[in-house]
Give the backbone structure.
Amino acid sequence: MNDTAFEPFLRNAWYLGAWSEELSDGHLGRTIMNEPIVFFRGPDGKAAALEDRCCHRGAPLTHGQVVEAGIECGYHGLIFNGSGACVDIPGHDNIPPQTKVRSYPVVERQEFVWIWMGEAARADESKIIDFQFHDQPDKWPNKKGMIPIKSNYMMMIDNLMDLTHLGYVHAKTIGGNPRAHAKAEFDAMPTENGARFDRWMMDAAPPPTYKKAVGFEGNVDRWWDFEYVAPSSVLQWNGAIDVGKNARENQDQPGFHLRLFHSATPETEGSFHYFFSAANGYQQDDPEATEVLFGEIFPTFIEDKEIMEVQQARLELDPGRKLVAIPSDKALTHARQTIRRLVAEERAEMAQAAE
Ligand code: FES
Ligand SMILES: [Fe+2]
């Protein structure tokens, strides 16, 4: 497949707007798909997202403050509730009904604050990813973060769906010998709304971090299981189990287990918010272990950011120019085909609706 790098946005989809913990105090401004948005909790404690633009004179609501009744504009004091309706105009009893700002459908679940960027009437909660591991903090203690990255959001999907970059981009951190992984068995396939790959390395020496965490004494069977869920999330599970324990048939048995949730929420065509949650499934009763995990992973994400930003700068010089695919692009090719199909379907529907 020869292809270019930038994909248009899929509008009718849920995007990760924030982590729940980011809304614990006041409001949060974040641009998503070129739309400035303010997130906050309304008087009922429910997460809300409004256009970050007051309907009175256009001041950003992020310059105001969260008050008991909602968010108060910092210019002339209008207050808007979580649905965007104005509930107070200082000094006036009558509130004209058009005094409102756009609100976005929001669902807070499993410590994610999901936002629907398309037609509100089509927001379907059943399409939200079920990441049940956030419901089990005892089994999967985790730590979350967000890194702003200046590249098209699909660069992150490419990055995660092709681990051959590990030995090069992460040579100084988790990479190891780039050719040592050549023996791994690799299988990639499309799914209904994304793509998936798994990779197995049988009877291999455990990496030092795994050994230290779990105390493996001999070789292990290792796996990487990655699933892209359109438009912009990747669910990762990797780990290792002692050789001879039928790891493939019973992957849930004790061993080294790590789960990462990645989401690349587009900010503009050339930038995104990279959300990640790292869950420790090996030393659950040691809070320090989760911190250590996060501390080890964070520098690798900065390495990814660096390569994606210089890649973006090059691609922007000539965005239409074709790229060359190589065999290890199999999973990312499935991912790209899925997002293209979904965008094409959405555009066809919109064109039909406009007729
Ligand atoms: S601009 Fe917001 S109250 Fe006037
Ligand atoms: Fe990476």
